[in-house]
Amino acid sequence: MQKNYDVTIIGGGPVGMFAAFYCGLHQLSAQLVESLPQLGGQLTALYPEKQIWDVAGLPGITAAKLVDQLKQQLAIVDVDQFTGEKVTDVVANADGTFTIHSANRTSQSKSVVIALGNGAFHPRQLRLAGAEDLTDQQVHYFVRHKADFKGQRVAVLGGGNSALDNAKMLAEVAEQVTLIHRRDQFRGHELVADQLRAMDGVDMMTPFLPRNLEVNDDQSLTLSLKKMRSDEERQLTVDKLVVNYGFTSNNDALSNWSLQLASDHHQIKVDQQMATNVPGVYAIGDAVTYPGRTALIATGFGEAPIAVAALAKRLYPEKSMAIHSSSLKIN
């Protein structure tokens, strides 16, 4: 027999996990469905040791620790969790409910919260001859374990938060870290950039752009760098190269669903209650767009209770929704 839920949260990243907890907090029957084998989304899959700085009250918490604490929080409430299960379709039924299809089962839900983040993501590649053949050997796009870089000379390419955070993290274990960016100003947090400038064993090379890459006999790499708006060129030899040029991402899976969701630049349009154009369907996190939105984990954490409160009022208009957690009894 198919189980009929009040809420189905699709996407088990940090924002989806918090939304599931908030559903349980208000005793809504909920299921959390995640396509990856484990909860945590990109934090778990790509950079578990990266420090997260945009969550209030948890300065510099590692991604793995944040996910672990979200799991502990989620364990307090009664929410069904399904991992390794990709949602293949969401069908709006005539009675206003929804049928959720995945590879191995079908379930019913009175409402849906989409928390897919950026969906499928791929790192922007280093466009130098030979770089593709070195991927996951000398050239890396993710730092899953900083111990893999211990005692080595590492160059980090990029100027955003990922590049700055990875450079700072690797400086703790590497022999030398060189951060290379094509501009003098960084797009990431200036505080972290200032911290890097003050660290021993860290060199900031700006504004330089890599032009060529060669593998040496000892398997080290020599980068040829050109200074922007100048004829100056430099050579840099390193053991490993970390490329942080950002990601290309999409939620193409949504296009295969029966729902006709309004979108803008491949992101789901929502209103102030995080409601989509389909009644009963809400969306939160980096998959959504509205004026003034900032793409931060903290933003998604704020969107989760807004969506859950709105859908609860829609499902149970007579129910009094306690706003503050101190008003609720938590075992």
Shape: elongated
Low-confidence stretches: none
Strand percent estimate: 25-35%
Q: What is the helix tally? A: 7
In the CATH hierarchy, what is the superfamily of the largest domain?
Answer: FAD/NAD(P)-binding domain
> Overall mean pLDDT score?
92
**CATH topology description of the largest domain:** FAD/NAD(P)-binding domain
- Which structural class fits the helix and strand makeup? alpha/beta
Output the CATH class name of the largest domain: Alpha Beta
User: How many domains, in number, for the residues?
Assistant: 2
* Range of helix content: 10-25%
Distance between the termini: 30 Å
The radius of gyration is: 23 Å
Say how many strands there are. Answer: 24
How are the strands of the largest sheet arranged?
6-3-2-10-23
Query: Judging by the overall fold, what is the CATH architecture of the largest domain?
Result: 3-Layer(bba) Sandwich
The biggest sheet, with number of strands, parallel, antiparallel or mixed sense and barrel status, is:
5 strands, parallel
